[in-house]
Design a protein that fits this description.
The protein is mainly alpha-helical. It has 16 helices and 5 strands. It has a domain at 12-48 and 137-320. 66% of the residues lie in helices and 6% in strands. It has a 3-stranded antiparallel β-sheet. Helix 9 (139-153) packs across helix 10. It is globular.
Length: 320
């Protein structure tokens, strides 16, 4: 009993997470933006359709919820060695409410996933086919999240016994407790990306905006440090074009996101018209203004609070 009380008292508090991040905000933002942008890039490239990918992730995460409800832990390797997963009954309305899609869109995307052989529909049941795991398996993303987590642990008090963890250690622990830990991450991710929909109007626009933010962050660090950034992320994949010091053009955004250039131009036109992005010499940057831009900033602030709580939960899980 004494040991249990002691363990509870050793839990990392949100205030400590905030202090750790604030000590090295610039580096934290680089890691955070890289993880988020990479997640969205991977999501789009899987099907060339973010909505289909998000539906698949939602279905996978529902499986994790069921496992956790029955205290059933599945490792990373065990989960992705499954031939198929039979889900509990899931309604279209449930997907609509979770992802902010119309009923028509959700129904159409599910039909497309079924036609692609990614999911199978048997009466009211949905079966996730093994083919789905090729699209959804998060190897690099898990490692990127582990790096973000490890960055935060470095500045925590040694009494918590978590700042000894390397990135590989954290990745290994998450993989060993995959369905439990990754459920927490996916739950955050699905809510995070949806929060921008009321302002940006589409998931494609969210990816485009994320690339502009990543470019902005990269350039700020270069200007501040007066040197090129070399880090574990191979960050130059966001700044491969010569125009990136003042923003990125529609062609670069299309190349990086894999979203067709015509679609990119249409989304950029909306964002510049609403002063979410600024366009100068065909280069787009996030130095926006106006009501819609202010809404983005408020959404960002709320999400930062949520990501810090997510990291607190994960770090405390690591120390169990």
């Amino acid at each position: 009993m004494v040991k249990d009380t002691f363990n509870i008292s050793q839990q990392v508090q949100l205030e400590e997470i905030n202090k750790s991040i604030d000590k090295n905000m610039n580096e934290f933002m680089t890691y955070f933006l890289y993880f988020q942008t990479s997640w969205m890039k991977n999501a789009y490239s899987s099907f060339k359709d973010l909505e289909k990918y998000l539906i698949l992730v939602y279905l996978v995460n529902k499986t994790f919820v069921t496992y956790n409800r029955h205290f059933y832990n599945v490792t990373f390797d065990q989960f992705y060695s499954n031939h198929e997963i039979i889900l509990e009954k899931i309604s279209i309305k449930e997907i609509v409410d979770a992802l902010g899609m119309s009923k028509e869109t959700a129904r159409r995307k599910i039909n497309e996933l079924s036609k692609d052989g990614v999911i199978l529909r048997n009466s009211k049941k949905i079966i996730i086919n093994q083919k789905a795991f090729v699209y959804q398996r998060p190897d690099n993303l898990l490692d990127n999240f582990s790096a973000l987590t490890q960055l935060v642990t470095k500045n925590l008090n040694s009494k918590h016994n978590v700042n000894r963890f390397s990135v590989k250690d954290i990745s290994r622990v998450i993989r060993a407790n995959f369905t439990h830990y990754w459920n927490t991450v996916l739950d955050y991710q699905l809510k995070y990306i949806r929060t921008f929909l009321p302002v940006l109007k589409s998931y494609d626009s969210t990816l485009i905006y994320a690339l502009c933010i990543s470019n902005h962050n990269y350039n700020l660090r270069n200007k501040r440090d007066n040197t090129k950034i070399i880090d574990r992320f191979n960050y130059p994949d966001f700044v491969t074009a010569k125009d990136t010091s003042k923003g990125i053009n529609s062609t670069t955004i299309s190349d990086l996101s894999e979203i067709p250039r015509a679609t990119v131009i249409r989304k950029l036109k909306y964002m510049t018209a609403n002063k979410i992005l600024k366009k100068v010499d065909n280069l787009y940057s996030i130095t926006g203004s106006g009501q819609e831009y202010d809404k983005i900033l408020k959404i960002y602030d709320k999400n930062q609070t949520k990501v810090r709580e997510l990291l607190r939960l994960i770090i405390n899980l690591l120390n169990q």
